[in-house]
Amino acid sequence: MPEITFAKIIGFSSEDSANHLYAHNLLKSKDFKSWKCDEWQTSSYVILETNDDHKVDNIEIGNDGSAFVEVFVANAGTALSDPNKQLKYQVLLSTSSFMTPSDSKLQANCQRIRQFPNEKLSPNARNEKWNRFKIVCTQPFNKTIPFGLAFVRFNTRPEVDEEMDITPGSSALNIGPFRLRSAANDDPESDRNSQTTKASKLRNT
């Protein structure tokens, strides 16, 4: 499935610049360069924005020391159309556990990866398109360590081309005005009978 590409970071609570664990590291999900807050805090967040609106099908999150992660979404276009209207975020992924209290205290399993399929996302948000994604991390079990994320990936479904579809219950593929039949379901015996019939007719003419 196509991965949603983030264009920029809109905001973040803090970042560990001393160790180069910047918020903008999350813009390149394949680099596996973490973002962490600079020191322990009640919660840490980062807000990413895309150039276009996207419908999220599934999410993959790589953790780096957070006990819980939740994801919120919004559409900046609603605020731009009305400057007096405050941007409201909706829950896309409810609070999800990445580390147990024991793991947190021992600093074990800090970089767990979890995948969240479509059915795990909020029904109210997964069917709409968004361009802002706010990720909130918390670590209430160990108040001595900074925490954050190793990477995030948001995937979307490919857009269906109205000019190209497969008729339900049929092996035919419609491409605009053309209709292509699948060869997989052709009956060789039927073809041979058809050819025999045609040959017989030719001999009798």
Automatic annotation (TrEMBL):
Residues 1-154 form the DNA-repair protein Xrcc1 N-terminal domain. One of its GO terms (cellular component) is nucleus. It comes from the Eukaryota. GO terms for molecular function: damaged DNA binding. Transmembrane segments: none annotated. One of its GO terms (biological process) is base-excision repair. It holds the Pfam family XRCC1_N. InterPro entries: Galactose-bd-like_sf, Xrcc1_N. PANTHER family: DNA REPAIR PROTEIN XRCC1 (PTHR11370:SF5), DNA-REPAIR PROTEIN XRCC1 (PTHR11370). This is DNA-repair protein Xrcc1 N-terminal domain-containing protein. It comes from Medioppia subpectinata.
